[in-house]
């Protein structure tokens, strides 16, 4: 499986950023762990704080022939019609992942504009959410 893993704003600060919510592992720790779990798959990782770059990364996944995408749009989940439109235009299965349980947090985080345009949303399972999303893409994507 060729899977693109795309992470949005402030996820490059994982490990230092609100560790009581997001844990003590860095994005690089999670990347290395996922690579070990999915040794037979071709994973490609991208992170940006910029909405336009995330949109370009989604279309690049399609253009490069990926089998699926895992997207953690971070705060853009709750605000970005631009990302939601891009997801609707994409011909690839996308699973949205949130490390924290967005349904157990502030009201504004409970709605995800982008999640509505994905196959599904995994939330609250920490790094295991990324692994579950890969497993879904492998079996059903
Ligand atoms: C997040 C949840 C979002 O509400 C938040 O803005 C993030 C991270 C998560 O992975 O739990 O930046 O997407």
Characterization of this structure:
The chain is 35% helix and 18% strand. It is an alpha/beta fold and 141 residues long. It has a five-stranded parallel beta sheet, sandwiched between helices. It is globular and about 35 Å long. The model has no long low-confidence stretch (mean pLDDT 97). 1,3,4-trihydroxy-5-OXO-cyclohexanecarboxylic acid binds at residues 10, 72, 74-75, 77, 98-100, 102, 109. Residues 10, 72, 74-75, 77, 98-100, 102, 109 line the site of 1,3,4-trihydroxy-5-OXO-cyclohexanecarboxylic acid.
CATH topology value: Rossmann fold
Output the number of helix runs: 5
Strand order of the largest sheet: 2-1-3-4-5
**Integer count of domains:** 1
* Low-confidence segments: none
Level-1 CATH class name: Alpha Beta
Bound molecules: 1,3,4-trihydroxy-5-OXO-cyclohexanecarboxylic acid
Number of strands: 5
Question: What's the short story on this structure?
Answer:
With 141 residues, the chain is an alpha/beta fold. The protein has five helices and five strands. It has a five-stranded parallel beta sheet with strand order 2-1-3-4-5, with helices on both faces.
Question: What structural keywords apply?
Answer:
5 strands, alpha/beta, 141 residues, 5 helices, binds 1,3,4-trihydroxy-5-OXO-cyclohexanecarboxylic acid
